[in-house]
Amino acid sequence: MTNSTNSWMRKARWSVTAAAAALVVAGTAVAPAAASAPVQPAVAVAQRGHVDSAALLKALEGLPDDYVRGAMVRVTGQEGRWRGAAGEWTAPVDSEFAIGSITKLFTSAMALQLVGEGRLSLDDTVQELLPGLLPASYEPITVGQLLSHTSGLQKPRCARPGTPVEVVTSAVSCDAPTAPGTVVRYNGINTFIVGLVIEEVTGRPYGEELRDRIVRPLGLRHTSLPADDWAWAEGGIVSRASDLERFFTALTRGRLLRPAERGLLFTTPAIQGADFSYGGLMRWEVPGGGPVVWGKTGSNRGYTSGIFATPDLRRVVVYSTLPTGADAKEETIRVKQIASAGFAGA
């Protein structure tokens, strides 16, 4: 980590294109399912008996509606399997879609791998690793604070598309941060910075690290990083439900991480309201007395999606929806209903 400021800035300015070009795996960015006549849910019968098919069908019925045009759900785990789709989700259930901020889990996993290798520490600061990226007036921000969304950076009101460096510098061009480590504020700029840290520490483009550390070892043949998506390490990946399930299972079972770093997946900062772990996982208590699950949501290219699982992986739920854009609050309620149905009876 002795590279000069100019060195990491040169690498970062071409990292979006180079990362995507280096990630030579099957799958390209896809557009949302085209509008068509509504279809009824297509269902695979639950196996081994504990998946609540009726709850899932009820959650999907009536699509398209005013807030969600279509959706798919895939449930796996020790308790059974189920998959279905409704409304304008006319592609197969296990088709590719833009996963948005679920990308953050891939980025966080690579950062924790570097921690396990002794090449990075959660206590390392952005200012030490990437000198000159943040304004000189900013207090030191640690890698751990970036991963857990406690960096104090404000939501990126001023962010504009561009290279990762341009995204970060535009995002911090207005709105002073709060003190690092004092509040939780979900912010995609945190993960852009983690992506730059990965490139600086490894000396390689983000996409090459993604390919060699996660995609190829796990055989994720339908997971890719399109060259035309500026969301990059924060939200640019395209994948499909079965690949996400394989990744999440490998991540939480320790195939990708050493024991100490695996423990960080379910460790949140000692801050009131902290609901993101040092592995970037979001803690969610399923409404209506459901279980506490961990995972991540994401939105990009017309899809709003998520993957959540019980810590013991007895139930893993992947979903993706096609919101109409009519009302963000109502859309969120509808999507949560669909996600919650996957854990009915768990």
From TrEMBL:
<dbReference type="GO" id="GO:0016787">
    <property type="term" value="F:hydrolase activity"/>
</dbReference>
<feature type="domain" description="Beta-lactamase-related">
    <location>
        <begin position="68"/>
        <end position="335"/>
    </location>
</feature>
<dbReference type="Pfam" id="PF00144">
    <property type="entry name" value="Beta-lactamase"/>
</dbReference>
<protein>
    <submittedName>
        <fullName>Serine hydrolase domain-containing protein</fullName>
        <ecNumber>3.-.-.-</ecNumber>
    </submittedName>
</protein>
<keyword id="KW-0732">Signal</keyword>
<dbReference type="InterPro" id="IPR001466">
    <property type="entry name" value="Beta-lactam-related"/>
</dbReference>
<keyword id="KW-0378">Hydrolase</keyword>
<feature type="signal peptide">
    <location>
        <begin position="1"/>
        <end position="31"/>
    </location>
</feature>
<dbReference type="InterPro" id="IPR050491">
    <property type="entry name" value="AmpC-like"/>
</dbReference>
<dbReference type="InterPro" id="IPR012338">
    <property type="entry name" value="Beta-lactam/transpept-like"/>
</dbReference>
